[in-house]
Amino acid sequence: MKSKNFSRRDFVRLSGTGVVSNFGIGLRLPPFNYLADARPAVVAGKLSAGEVMQRIKENVHVPWVGPTVDTIKGGGSPDIIVTGITTSFMATLDVLQKSVKAGNNLVLTHEPTFWSNLDGNDGLTADPLYLHKLEFIQSNGLFVHRFHDHWHARKPDGIDEGWIKVMGWDKYKFDEARQVFELPSATTLEGYAKETKHRLKSDSVRVVGDPQLIVKTVSKGSNKTPKNGAFPLSADVTITYEPDRENDNVEWERDSVLSGQMRGFIIVSHNRLEEYGMENCANWCRTFISEVPIQFIPSGDPFWRTIS
């Protein structure tokens, strides 16, 4: 099925009537909890979605246990025959549409599909956007499965492995005692922020600290203020992401600088920090799945900025 444009008129029509054919108003679809005791159907010469997930569970080398967010989204069946696999940070409508166009009916997404951690539909069963996205998944026969908890639990962390590679940190010396990466040559905070922007292909990099601060060491922080407080003060710059609340995280970082600490902070979006971990996931999946094509489809930086 070709992707459909969802116009403003569609929103008004759906919201006004409260009735949508084939969308399943009021339908509650609990996520399929595909845990270790489930067994996929086997079709001779074909690879089912359940078999793909079984291989993932066997190769991630961590116990696949619940409760977990790593479940099916949108009600797809593990028995569907896989024609292609997409990995992505986020199963946005754009990623889903590109997957259909590419012939990929299994989408492995790191983050939620329906805008909340558990992908619940409370308060959404009459929401036009929720219904549109759910209908698109179902009418195109997509099997959307989240891969978050266990990809992070893998050793090494599958997301961090991709991040370290795209940032070039895999080529830097790692000081285990201080938990920092040492740059091959010193630069300024402004210079390293520009390098970060280039490497992450992001237009939404923000910086706290003196632009001329000399940077020799870097570390990856968190989106939680208490966790950032525990990160090594010996790092000249810490890259943090998706501030939990700007008046908590960012102001903690600013006061840290204003207190006299010679350090800087580079703030990136959650997407930019973890996107390349799902490209890493596609490469990893290819080591044990060869029957169907596997494609990383980036969801892209969600932000753009005006230029004065």
Automatic annotation (TrEMBL):
Keyword match Metal-binding: yes
Keywords in alphabetical order: Metal-binding
Binding site for a divalent metal cation: H110
Domain of life of the organism encoding this protein: Bacteria
InterPro entries: DUF34/NIF3, DUF34/NIF3_sf, TAT_signal
Metal-binding as UniProt keyword: yes
Entry's Gene Ontology molecular function annotations: metal ion binding
Protein family membership: Belongs to the GTP cyclohydrolase I type 2/NIF3 family.
Protein name (Swiss-Prot/TrEMBL): Uncharacterized protein
Organism expressing this protein natively: Acidisarcina polymorpha
